[in-house]
């Protein structure tokens, strides 16, 4: 009797354990394990987005692709203003109510611009002649403007009480697409009521060296403008009747050349020359900038 009871108990245990094994096996077959998945974004950040990651009062302006002027782009930035004077051919940046040498450090590719100009007195209409510190820059060469408000930007804040504005010009990588060795980039615009027309052509090339660990590249760009001084206001009056003359017409032309040598990821040498020529308001204006930069990264 006891033997039969023991057999029944053992048989029940074996039966239940077999069912449990079948259920576990069925559940195991339904389980699928995936390898780890990494999700990342390859979208290139704009200069405006990069400025948000910096501590302090920073702003950035990307390339201007419409008919807006440099002054209009600067005025759209918080705490930044310009002196829009038809009798001056340059760009004068005002930060938090201050401008000029010792207050705002205006730079082109990191080279400080300290030009001071005064307009003839006959256009002041009984007042003092207009004058300002400004920089001679071709808008077609600008790809980015970095603005720092306050003394917080290292070497850019030297001799700058209110802040700095750095105009970055077109470079080799702005002309070439990725994995391409040469390219051409052009830009043209035309408008009425004082806008005139302008155009720019840039050509660049890059040659890999040292088993593609580095490269040597060069770029040359030329730009020209024909800027009319006259415009009509909202009432339909021509500006020659109250503010401007034909002497305010401008035909500036500029050249920009850059050479870059990068043997590896740690070292890079860049040479640049920029030439600006203009005849404006009975004045001949020539501006030349040269720089040599060396970068070392680890």
TrEMBL record:
The superkingdom listed in its UniProt entry is: Bacteria
Signal sequence segment: 1-25
A single GO BP annotation from the record? siderophore transmembrane transport
Q: One GO CC annotation, please?
A: cell outer membrane
Q: Where is the TonB-dependent receptor plug domain?
A: 66-163
Q: What is its main location?
A: membrane
According to its UniProt record, where is this protein located? Cell outer membrane
**Topology of the protein relative to the lipid bilayer:** Multi-pass membrane protein
Q: Which UniProt keywords apply?
A: Cell outer membrane, Membrane, Receptor, Signal, Transmembrane, Transmembrane beta strand, Transport
Offer an example of a GO molecular function term for this protein. siderophore uptake transmembrane transporter activity
Family named by the database record: Belongs to the TonB-dependent receptor family.
State the name under which the record lists this protein: TonB-dependent receptor
